[in-house]
Amino acid sequence: MRSLLMKEKSKAIKLYLILIFAVCYGLGVIEFFTGMGKAYKFLGIGFTFFPVLSALITRRITSEKSSYFLSLKVWKNKKIWLLSAVAPGILIVLGSVLYFLLFRNEYSGVFAYGRLIGNDDVMIVDNIFVFAIVFIIAAALMIPIQLIELGEEIGWRGYLLSLQAEKYGRRKAVLINGFEWGLSHLPLIYFGFNYSLDNFGAPWTNMLMMILVCMVFGTLFSYVTIKTGNCMYAAIMHGVVNTIGEMPVLLTYDINSTLLGPNPTGIIGMSFLLIAATLFFLKIEKKRN
Length: 289
Description:
The chain has a two-stranded antiparallel sheet with strand order 1-2. The protein is mostly helical and about 290 residues long. The protein is globular and about 60 Å long. The protein has eleven helices and two strands, in the order ααααββααααααα.
């Protein structure tokens, strides 16, 4: 009986991955040959929704009916909510501070928030620590923005991770899940998403870095999902990472290499997140669900 159940789960895992990679890489190929920007734009807009759609289609086609790691009742675990809403921001700020300490000439002391909306508006940053605290608190309270990432987390952590944990065991599943999640990003990265195409070895070095980033972030998101049985905390954490993670670069004159930072998609910018991910990974039990 267990052998039959595992066969069904393996089939569901394969189908989910086929669906998600077919969409992402299919759009990437279309963009590569047309160069019109429409396929790339559609991929960027739909990237958050493709995972949950793939999960729904997979469940519809296969006989595998595992429940999602999903519950709206995030208030039931206040400690994990606080961890998810606040800790990533602190770690991102620490990473950006380390980056600016190493590359002091890149720190402008001016927050060019106008870049986000296409103008030249700026804000003078008199006290970087107060500025950082305000951003961390603001990100922690921006629940609607955080939950934009729920579609991605339902697919990758809420659905796929639960299947992979039963097949591979939890630790192995977390690594595989993060690696495959990284692979799904590569068509976007190839065309310059998140990274400068002026980086050394771009776009290939950018793509390799994105896989590492996804394995680091994926470990953090998987940890809170496994810990609580609820991917809503991962969606909150994901939203905070995306919100605060875009801020450090707005404090720069010029960037040495986005492979380094200051955003958490660079190795220095993500350094404290990497340490946290390693510690959390070691706390994950090896046993299957």
